[in-house]
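User: Just a sanity check before I run the rest of the batch. Below are the structure tokens for the first item. I only need the designed sequence back.
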């Protein structure tokens, strides 16, 4: 894994080299092993490679400050985490042999060895053992369409001097981050927001729509960022940037698939073969391997298949434990599984001491991010990075195989009961009863009427989709309006989070479960799960690889019939069939236990000082977004009713305020 920056002054002004270096070095955690730059004059093709403060000492290059005063208008910068070919040959930016194409790249093309053989048959030769060189050769052979041949996770920026074009690509599912900032005469592509903030031409005005959706979803959904002038490149999208024009377009899009008629045995065999192939590809590395093992279905299956594919005791598993919190602690199941597999196992304790690192943890996300499980991932990544450079994860299993019963199955069951009711004609009121409009501040009569009218006007299928998305929302519209200070109430009045989510919902028709799963894969998977794991692991210089998100597995999972995913009210049926002979008896039959942080008890016992500082009325007034009295009402509600919802409401406000104090107020 790595951190990348591409900065192009399309108005011809010289690149600010100090700002460039600050942008690249702000991502040093993503690439602690090497640092590099190339400056390019896009009008003449002249270029110069440069070193930085942390460039591999085996590489001899002039320092960035020693490259003269030529007006280079384009720069690429890179921080490297060495995983494959640890030699200086993997230094980036990397160029084609003729120096006309340059790339900075973050990720891993897992099938690069197969692609290397194919490219050799076309006459290409290679001087490194890296997958970076494969991307350059593939670009020369097949142009922008080369990404269709890649199996992996990536975000890269490539300057092609023969086309006078800066090209940036993000992998199919959004495993690796890619952002683009725009300002007067400049465009910046980077792995993280903090890098773009160092380019002064890019404005840093907050985006009210981003704040509004954050309060409901606990993160800023793509393509938004917390800043108006910066956007996330969507999964499966590419940027094509020329001096006078630019375009973002989808090069891959997961669409609703026709449900495949397949029997259980054939489905199990096909899925097992793909899983084994995916894990084989993701075990390619020149560094020690590990795996996150929660004690649940997905990570246990991944760890079991990886352990079988590696030499004895070559895999180390890591599990997060919560002493005294039996409702969320899966330590014993993880330990039992690791013993069954014969792998080295490391339990990692999550204690109140780690909470002192909350400001540093939040700084890794660059914008408000209140998914509390990210705290746990950060803690386990810190320990894993002491002995490994790569970990396998079980991410994607819930989205692909219907592992969220409260979302996939219970929503359907509630609507089925409502539609059978004699009061079905009052669907709007019944929908609001199933999904309560407020937990701490009662909506006005006008707000209640508006909510009911919105539901009544929707066709039954669309109303059911709205109910599905409502289960994702923490603060609802009435609650957010009660929170905002007057100026922010005006600025956010046009936004509706359920309406925003509806735009990503596949068109009605076909299998509803597959549509809902596809919606999760398009939205919550990259915005929440993958973003959480990328930032938390890369914050410790650790590469995370999710074998379940091989695009071939994703496409197969969405074609499988409902009967192979949900049976007797529980999800992931076909995955459990695969796992039952590979993990300890009983593990596949356990009730799902989500990976979460016990916020309610932590607030009660340890966080009062932090809450008092960040959420004190004076601090709320300084940020100017919320009404101090409204925030105090949320705190009071959590103190009297300390549950998952009220605790996450407080945590979301806390994360916003800590971020604002760190980034906006200094």
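Assistant: Here's the designed sequence for the first item:
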């Amino acid at each position: 894994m790595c951190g990348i920056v591409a900065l192009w002054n399309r108005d011809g002004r010289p690149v600010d080299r100090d700002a460039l270096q600050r942008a690249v070095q702000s991502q040093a955690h993503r690439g602690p092993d090497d640092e590099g730059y190339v400056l390019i004059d896009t009008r003449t093709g002249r270029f110069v490679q440069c070193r930085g403060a942390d460039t591999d000492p085996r590489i001899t290059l002039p320092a960035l400050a020693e490259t003269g005063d030529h007006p280079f208008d384009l720069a690429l910068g890179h921080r490297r985490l060495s995983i494959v070919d640890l030699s200086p040959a993997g230094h980036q930016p990397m160029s084609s042999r003729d120096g006309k194409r340059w790339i900075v790249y973050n990720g891993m093309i897992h099938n690069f060895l197969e692609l290397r053989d194919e490219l050799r048959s076309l006459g290409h030769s290679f001087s490194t053992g890296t997958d970076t060189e494969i991307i350059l050769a593939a670009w020369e052979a097949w142009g922008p369409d080369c990404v269709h041949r890649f199996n992996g996770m990536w975000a890269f920026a490539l300057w092609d001097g023969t086309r006078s074009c800066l090209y940036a690509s993000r992998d199919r599912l959004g495993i690796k981050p890619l952002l683009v900032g725009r300002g007067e005469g400049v465009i910046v592509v980077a792995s993280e927001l903090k890098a773009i903030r160092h380019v002064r031409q890019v404005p840093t005005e907050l985006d009210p729509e981003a704040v509004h959706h954050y309060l409901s979803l606990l993160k800023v959904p793509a393509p938004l960022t917390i800043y108006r002038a910066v956007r996330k490149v969507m999964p499966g999208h590419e940027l094509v940037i020329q001096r006078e024009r630019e375009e973002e377009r989808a090069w891959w899009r997961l669409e609703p698939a026709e449900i495949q008629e397949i029997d259980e045995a054939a489905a199990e065999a096909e899925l097992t073969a793909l899983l084994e192939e995916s894990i084989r590809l993701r075990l390619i590395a020149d560094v020690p391997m590990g795996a996150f093992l929660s004690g649940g279905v997905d990570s246990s299956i991944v760890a079991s298949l990886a352990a079988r594919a590696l030499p004895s005791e070559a895999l180390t598993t890591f599990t997060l434990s919560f002493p005294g919190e039996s409702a969320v602690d899966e330590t014993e199941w993880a330990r039992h599984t690791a013993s069954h597999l014969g792998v080295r196992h490391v339990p990692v304790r999550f204690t109140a001491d780690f909470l002192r690192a909350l400001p540093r943890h939040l700084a890794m996300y660059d914008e408000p991010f209140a998914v509390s499980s990210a705290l746990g991932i950060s803690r386990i990544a810190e320990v894993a990075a002491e002995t490994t450079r790569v970990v396998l994860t079980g991410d994607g299993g819930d989205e692909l195989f219907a592992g969220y019963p409260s979302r996939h199955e219970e929503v359907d069951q509630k609507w089925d009961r409502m539609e059978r009711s004699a009061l079905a004609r009052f669907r709007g009121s019944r929908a609001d009863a199933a999904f309560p409009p407020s937990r701490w501040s009662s909506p006005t009569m006008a707000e209640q009427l508006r909510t009911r009218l919105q539901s009544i006007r929707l066709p039954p299928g669309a109303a059911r989709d709205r109910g599905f998305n409502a289960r994702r929302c923490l603060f609802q519209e009435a609650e957010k309006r009660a929170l905002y200070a007057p100026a922010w109430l005006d600025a956010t009045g046009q936004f509706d989070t359920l309406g925003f989510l509806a735009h990503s919902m596949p068109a009605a028709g076909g299998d509803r479960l597959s549509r809902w799963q596809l919606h999760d894969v398009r939205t919550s998977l990259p915005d929440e799960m993958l973003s959480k794991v990328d930032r938390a692991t890369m914050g410790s210089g650790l590469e995370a690889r999710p074998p379940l998100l091989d695009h071939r597995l994703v496409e197969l999972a969405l074609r499988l019939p409902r009967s192979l995913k949900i049976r007797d009210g529980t999800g992931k049926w076909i995955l459990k069939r695969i796992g039952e002979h590979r993990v300890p008896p009983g593990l596949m039959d356990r009730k799902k236990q989500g990976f979460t942080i016990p916020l309610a008890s932590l607030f009660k016992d340890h966080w009062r000082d932090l809450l008092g500082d960040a959420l004190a009325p004076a601090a709320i007034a300084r940020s100017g977004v919320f009404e101090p009295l409204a925030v105090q009402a949320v705190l009071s509600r959590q103190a009297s009713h300390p549950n998952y919802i009220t605790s996450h409401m407080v945590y979301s406000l806390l994360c916003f305020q800590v971020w604002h104090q760190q980034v906006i107020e200094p």
